[in-house]
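Hi support team,

I'm filing this because I wasn't sure whether my run with zinc ion finished correctly. The job status page said complete, but I'd like someone to confirm that the output block is well-formed before I use it downstream. Pasting the exact inputs I used:
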Amino acid sequence: MIAHTNGGGSDQGSLLGFWNNRFAETGERVGAHFQVMSDGTIEQYADTDLRIDHAFDGSRFAVGIETQDDNDPSRPWTKAQIDAIVDICNWLEVPPQQLAEHGGDGIGWHRLHDSWNKSHHTCPGDVRLQQLKQSVIPRLGLEREDLSIMDPETKKFLDAQFRLLRLGDVGPGAETHPNNLQDILRKINETDDKVDKVQADILRIKQHLGIPG
Ligand SMILES: [Zn+2]
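And here is everything the job wrote out:
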């Protein structure tokens, strides 16, 4: 997965019209698989198995997530946007590691490698890059229900890191992606080794955040 911030204009958060107009005018098929709007609404423009040109050579293997910034990338992602990005990444089972330049699994950002960013812009911007490292990557791999069986102290610690998502949560993202939400819920129901997994998750998060023990 490669994260972006909207370089182009958007129509109330949607990029569909912008990209369709660009194709009509120039024949260029650029885009992204997802757009995450400021209110957390997710639009999916293409199946994740399809190649979409969003990051030059990185487009060969990476899913692209665009994020609404209303032409101001110094504006931080909203909480709802971060939640939605995490939901997409967890649905795609993106592991909490940096995506390598020539492929594999993990999370990257547009300007990470020159081969992904031949036009040398700063996408996704310093502010959003910090949020990606501090607020998105530590949450990857955590299922919503995992949080409910943690000991109170750990739960409190994690609650402070991000809003607790609950089973049956509804919202713009859930409403526009009922199938994705179903996938997430199904996966939770099938997980038997929750306790071990949660312990491993906690350790990983603490290590990531530099917290001892
Ligand atoms: Zn970009």
